[in-house]
Backbone:
């Protein structure tokens, strides 16, 4: 009579994940796998073949209860062996902090560890759990920021590919290279179905503009470039469609326009060329910013601006504070850190900080632009690199 082969560790390992079986199921061919492993394997390969022998299983596999019980017993036995000291066969309840080894009480009194510092295993475990929880929370926060960054970059990439043609079709004056605000643009139609495959159709290194303007919010006295990354104030003879003012998104009286993408978390930076403009304001506005009933600066805005030769900052309380001792800026950098509750304005290199607001932003904010000048405000492009 043939002798029975003793079990070895490999008998309890799933061929897909190479770990001890978890809720094992048996296929028609007789091979067993973790329930989640085989379902995931079939989903990825779009077939119901066995990963080992390629035989197709038509029915839903049933749980292999006997193997599952054996695996539980194996794990219990393995953990028990791992807890025992190999020399003294006593339970290892201490950690040697000097050698970073598990010890039993007899090992602790040995000559090798007598003068070392030791601590209970459970105490060290709880301490490491706390460190891991902190690192996990930080990792989750970084993942959320990366996902938001990917979302915004995908949106900008798609806009660069499609927005120029879209705006050209809705221009009121085809011969004019600039876009005059008019009918609403069905932007969701063009951004509703994008995904990461967009990146497979563009270069690894691109020049992009971190903020694009939303033409549906632009006052009728403003005109946007076809990008749209630039805005200027129209002459009276150029203003059209002033009576078509039924769009609740649009600033009805104030010569303002918002960026298309709003922010709730993270850090965001954009640069605005203001060199030739003599009457401007740039900053951020809350989503509920006042859009009707005022020809002055609406409530809900934090900004820096220039009126002739006077540089000043304004907050939602409409308290305007003149800034003295600064040369008239040519480029203003807007730095928004929502996590820290900080909004600052500086020169292009960040060496001269004009002003910093501190505020707990509880509402989504959008880039804000105001101009009464015929010369444009232009959002400057940046270089962006992404692995595909």
Residues:
């Amino acid at each position: 009579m043939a002798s029975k082969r003793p079990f070895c560790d490999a008998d309890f390992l799933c061929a897909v994940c190479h770990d001890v079986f978890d809720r094992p199921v048996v296929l028609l061919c007789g091979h067993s796998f973790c329930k989640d492993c085989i379902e995931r394997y079939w989903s990825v390969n779009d077939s119901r073949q066995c990963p080992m022998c390629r035989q197709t299983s038509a029915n839903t596999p049933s749980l292999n209860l006997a193997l599952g019980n054996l695996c539980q017993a194996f794990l219990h036995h393995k953990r028990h062996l791992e807890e025992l000291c190999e020399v003294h066969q006593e339970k290892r309840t201490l950690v040697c902090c000097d050698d970073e080894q598990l010890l039993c009480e007899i090992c602790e009194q040995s000559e090798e560890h007598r003068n070392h510092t030791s601590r209970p295993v459970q105490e060290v475990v709880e301490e490491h759990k706390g460190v891991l929880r902190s690192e996990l929370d930080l990792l989750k926060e970084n993942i959320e920021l990366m996902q938001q960054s990917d979302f915004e970059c995908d949106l900008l990439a798609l806009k660069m590919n499609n927005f120029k043609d879209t705006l050209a079709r809705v221009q009121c004056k085809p011969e004019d290279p600039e876009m005059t605000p008019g009918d609403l643009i069905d932007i969701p139609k063009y951004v509703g179905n994008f995904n990461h495959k967009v990146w497979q159709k563009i270069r690894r290194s691109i020049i992009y503009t971190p903020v694009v303007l939303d033409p549906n919010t632009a006052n009728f006295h403003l005109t946007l470039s076809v990008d749209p990354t630039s805005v200027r104030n129209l002459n009276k003879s150029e203003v059209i469609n002033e009576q078509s003012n039924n769009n609740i998104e649009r600033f009805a009286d104030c010569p303002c326009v918002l960026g298309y993408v709003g922010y709730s978390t993270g850090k965001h930076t954009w640069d605005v060329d203001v060199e030739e403009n003599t009457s401007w304001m740039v900053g951020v506005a809350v989503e509920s910013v006042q859009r009707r009933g005022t020809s002055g600066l609406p409530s809900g805005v934090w900004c820096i601006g220039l009126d002739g030769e006077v540089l000043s900052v304004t907050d939602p309380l409409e308290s305007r504070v003149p800034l003295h001792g600064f040369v008239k800026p040519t480029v203003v950098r807007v730095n928004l850190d929502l996590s820290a509750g900080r909004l600052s304005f500086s020169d292009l290199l960040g060496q001269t900080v004009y002003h910093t607001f501190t505020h707990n932003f509880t509402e989504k904010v959008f880039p804000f632009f105001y101009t009464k000048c015929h010369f444009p405000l232009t959002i400057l492009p940046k270089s962006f690199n992404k692995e595909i």
About this structure: Helices lie at 35-45, 65-83, 105-108, 121-170, 187-191.
